[in-house]
Write a structure and sequence with these properties.
By secondary structure, this protein is of the alpha/beta class. It contains 26 helices and ten strands.
């Protein structure tokens, strides 16, 4: 006996076996039981969901001999049912609308409907892909569809309902067939594996069902292909390797490289992947699907049927590394990349350029965030030179010159006036042989703030005050002596900016270090008024250039 493909062998033969179309089945069965049989039906929906099968089942229900049709469920064993299933019944005529789309073909139908059925109660015309009929053919059918003989039933099937004229649709009962859900397809494939004594991983069956995109016929066809190279054991690794897909494990590895900003490792990884046989288009499609799933997970959606894998299979590092708006930007870049591949001079170059941009994805911020930071910057530049102490002492008027090392107090810790207390500090600074290097060596002994703590403090401040955080980062040395934190700067401009908001700095220092410290700001050397003005202008220019680049679209390098 010749081999029969699974899609044909598992074609539904009754309403009970028509999966995923509960509304259609219930409506047709009720209309048959009540005797309200229409003279024309229009079945619309995507490919491989059961439109033609439902038409054949309806034809069998109308002409079943054993049940003395019409019957809600055909017997499937009488002469009429067998002939209809085999496609040789003289009373059920199946017509391909794509190849029989002329007026002459419709005229032939108009002549044939005058003859009564031979062995059944109804003569059924099933026209598949009816949208392929010409306009003249549709017009020729109008009168026949509207007032056919009582023994005639028309069943039209189409995948593009929008191409069927409204004059035809208004004369038919229309049924919209849905895509088969992933769970339904997977369950049917699992049942099929049990019948064929095939062992299959759940992830493999889920992948097949997902790739079928709602078409049960496509799922069966892909299943046959997988069985042909997998034998009696189907695994997800065999499928990905043989069919040229990247797979989730590889996508997780690449995603972690991008999360760490490792462009070099990303380039080498993709070179190896493409060399293994994965096509550039398939790689971009897999990568797009991966970031789409990460976006679902970021929004708290963990449904396995949507993701195609269990939520635990995705890298936690990648999920935590990116914000939703950054993932949306990545998807936009990948969609643009896929469109560009068709006309690209070199597809690999396009992919490598996109990877370079994705490696810098963590630095991407939205135009709205830029606007908020510009407003914050404007406010900080306006009030940046108002001096506060760490204990929120009364502010010094804007524009007042504050000596380097001032903390907003009028007296030193020893009770001496600030002018007298400043002299030992200046002497101490002079002894540091150029400033930082001597102080840095001394700090190793006397207690320098660890780098991770400094980074945490700066990042916390940057979230609310970008400019303050940027200037605090310019402090080359953070040294703790007793209950005092000494901050050493190379420029007076940066020192003054930090002095202008010592309360915010002290608050974050206390939060991260877990102790309250007095803050003393020191400058490596004094600057002239001209140098200070130049550095102030340069800082403002730098911020303006950054804003201009953002609004020109140069957000990701």
């Amino acid at each position: 006996m010749s081999y029969e493909i699974t899609a044909t062998r598992k074609r539904p033969s009754s309403f009970e076996t028509l999966s995923g179309q509960e509304f259609v089945v219930a409506t047709l069965k009720n209309s048959i039981q009540s005797g309200h049989i229409a003279h024309a039906y229009l079945f619309a929906g995507p490919r491989g969901v059961g439109k033609t099968s439902a038409a054949r089942i309806l034809a069998k229900s109308l002409n079943c001999l054993k049940e003395k049709g019409p019957a809600a469920e055909p017997c499937g064993i009488c002469e009429n049912c067998v002939e209809i299933s085999r496609g040789i019944s003289p009373d059920v005529i199946e017509i391909d609308g794509a190849s029989n789309n002329s007026v002459n073909d419709v005229r032939q139908i108009k002549d044939e409907v005058l003859f009564a059925p031979g062995g059944g109660r109804y003569k059924v015309y099933i026209i598949d892909e009816v949208h392929m009929l010409s306009s003249s053919a549709f017009n020729a059918l109008l009168k026949t569809i509207e007032e056919p003989p009582p023994y005639i039933v028309f069943i039209f099937a189409t995948t593009e309902i929008q191409k069927v004229p409204a004059t035809i649709r208004s004369r038919c009962q229309q049924f919209n067939f849905r895509r088969i859900s992933i769970e339904t397809s997977r369950n049917l494939l699992k049942k099929l594996c049990d019948e064929m004594s095939i062992t299959a991983e759940d992830d493999a069956l889920l992948w097949i069902a997902k790739e079928a995109t709602g078409s049960l016929r496509d799922a069966y066809t892909l299943f046959d292909q997988v069985v042909s190279f997998s034998g009696n054991s189907i695994t997800i690794r065999k499928i990905l390797d043989k069919l040229g897909f990247a797979g989730l494990d590889r996508m997780n590895e690449l995603g972690e490289f991008l999360a760490d900003g490792k462009s070099k490792e990303s380039f080498l990884f993709v070179d190896e992947l493409l060399s293994s046989g994965v096509s550039p288009e398939q790689f971009v499609a897999d990568m797009t699907e991966y970031f789409r799933n990460i976006l679902w997970l970021k929004n708290g959606i963990r449904k396995e049927a949507i993701l195609g894998y269990s939520a635990e299979a995705f890298s936690k590092k990648v999920i935590e590394a990116f914000q939703p708006y950054q993932i949306e930007k990545a998807l936009a870049l990948l969609f643009e990349l896929y469109r560009n591949l068709r006309y690209s001079l070199n597809q690999r170059f396009e992919i490598e350029l996109a990877l370079a941009r994705l490696a810098d994805l963590k630095n991407y911020i939205t135009p709205r965030q830029i606007t908020e930071r510009v407003l914050a910057l404007r406010k900080e530049l306006k009030n940046g030179f108002v001096v506060h102490s760490a204990e929120d002492s009364p502010a010094t008027p804007a524009g007042t010159e504050v000596p380097a090392g001032a903390s907003g107090d009028t007296e030193s810790d020893t009770g001496q006036p600030a002018e007298q207390a400043e002299a030992p500090r200046q002497a101490e600074q002079t002894e540091q042989v150029g400033g930082f290097m001597s102080a840095a060596k001394e700090a190793e002994v006397s207690g320098e703030v660890p780098m991770d703590k400094r980074t945490a403090i700066i990042q916390n401040i940057r979230k609310k005050k970008l400019t303050l955080g940027s200037n605090l980062e310019k402090a080359g040395l953070w040294r703790v002596t007793g209950d005092t934190l000494h901050l050493f700067f190379d420029t007076k401009f940066a020192a003054d900016f930090v002095i202008g908001d010592l309360a915010s700095v002290a608050q974050q220092i206390e939060q991260v270090l877990g102790r309250k410290l007095k803050i003393e700001v020191k400058v490596n050397r004094d600057e002239t008024a001209e140098e200070t003005k130049e550095k102030e202008d340069a800082a403002v220019d730098e911020q303006v250039k950054m804003v201009q680049k953002v609004f020109r679209g140069e957000i990701i390098k």
